[in-house]
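Summary for the steering committee. One of the milestones for this cycle was to obtain a three-dimensional model of the protein with adenosine monophosphate bound, which we needed before selecting residues for the alanine scan. The sequence and ligand used are listed below.
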Amino acid sequence: MNLILLGPPGAGKGTQAVRLAAYLKVPQISTGDILRAARQVRSDLGRKVEGFMLSGQLVPDDVVTELVRERLGQPDASNGYILDGYPRTVAQARSLEEILVKRGQGIDCVLNLEVTEPELVKRLLGRGREDDREEVIRDRLKVYRKQTEPLIGFYSKCGILRGVNALGEMDEIFTRLTHAVNGKA
Ligand code: AMP
């Protein structure tokens, strides 16, 4: 099963993606994790993306798309995956489509985690990551609204979008996600 987890920063994509990956026995592919790892080892890629990440801006589309193309070509991704944090722009969604068509694959379902804005800010402030300072949070939410939110319409037109209420307890949200994946919601 090939899934995309969509949602604003702070919606709980990362946490739920890890659990869903274990449940479905497929890898979780997080572009944020890949980019943070590149920064930690101070690779050329890491240095290139640092400024974007620290200021809450998106890394250029071609950079992340290349990472995803490579990652999807690895053997463990041949039986499905959960994309967490990619695509984040309509251009990335189009590139993903091209990559998948070439591989003879498609996306089965896009799960959109729905959370109210005050709850997002509260969660992000509590997380304490280096890009979770209040002014950066505001910028990341702005970037989300302008560049990522249009994906809801994009995938809704494709008929594969499923909205999931992401307020409440983690276990409760996970159950809703499994129901959505299994077509029960
Ligand atoms: P995340 O862990 O998904 O919140 O990502 C952290 C940061 O990595 C984002 O604020 C962006 O700077 C960068 N990033 C992650 N995924 C993408 C993507 N698909 N497109 C552009 N930038 C990304």
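Key point for the committee: Residues 9, 31-32, 35, 52-53, 56-59, 64, 85-86, 88, 92, 131, 140 surround adenosine monophosphate (CB under 6 Å).
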